[in-house]
Specification:
Layout (H helix, E strand, L loop, with lengths): L1 H17 L22 H11 L19 H10 L16 H15 L4 H5 L8 H13 L16 H10 L16 H22 L1
Helix pairs in contact: 3-6, 4-6
Length: 206
């Protein structure tokens, strides 16, 4: 029984790796539920968190999403939190989101299908084409707005260099004008917490 579990999980992880996940530290067999061919959502999240340790922020509260009661926000929360924490639209630019969503959709379709991966994953839903378009449209509407460096003459100052070195670590360098002076302190505080959480996750995974 144990060897069957290992074989099935190994084949599933190879399939996920072929879709872009190549480093898989510390996967445990102890989380398998419902028999040797079943993994529930909590197990899936735990596995993904190990795979992506130190690469993803801790996620945001659904209530903090832009336009949180919209259909786009609802679908984003429903589908994305099946496997990992809820991402904010500011993680990527409008140009980057379609390919990111396409890659995630491939994985959901594979894990929610009728093949071996679908049999192994319990309750993983995959969006239909209409839902996928709604999610992409929502993410693009609230995406990270990258800076136009030609509009800022002070990026070579100590403050400008600190801004570039810090904020470009996880996403495109943001345009300062996408938030007001009153909004920026809360944004910086949230990003600081994210960086600390990522650093701690990296330390635990070593």
């Amino acid at each position: 029984m144990k060897s069957n579990r290992q074989l099935i999980l190994g084949m599933a992880l190879i399939a996920i790796g072929l879709l872009g996940m190549n480093t898989i530290p510390g996967i445990s067999m102890g989380g398998m539920m419902g028999g040797p061919m079943m993994m529930d959502r909590d197990d899936m999240k735990a596995m993904m968190n190990r795979m992506m340790a130190g690469q993803l922020p801790p996620g945001i509260d659904p209530r903090d999403l832009p336009d949180p009661k919209s259909e786009g926000a609802r679908l984003l929360n429903h589908y994305c939190t099946q496997c990992h924490n809820l991402p904010g639209p500011g993680m990527h630019t409008a140009q980057e989101w379609p390919s990111v969503v396409g890659r995630m959709n491939q994985r959901m379709q594979m894990m929610g299908g009728h093949g071996m991966m679908g049999m192994m994953m319990d309750g993983i839903d995959a969006p239909n084409n209409s839902e996928l378009k709604t999610v992409v449209k929502y993410l693009q509407a609230h995406a990270q707005q990258p800076i136009d460096t030609s509009r800022y003459s002070d990026l070579d100052t100590p403050a400008g260099q600190a801004f570039q070195n810090t904020c470009s670590r996880c996403h495109a360098l943001p345009d300062p004008r996408q938030h007001t002076a009153a909004e920026w302190p809360a944004v910086v505080e949230r990003m600081t917490r994210n960086m600390q959480a990522i650093a701690e996750s990296k330390s635990r995974s070593r």
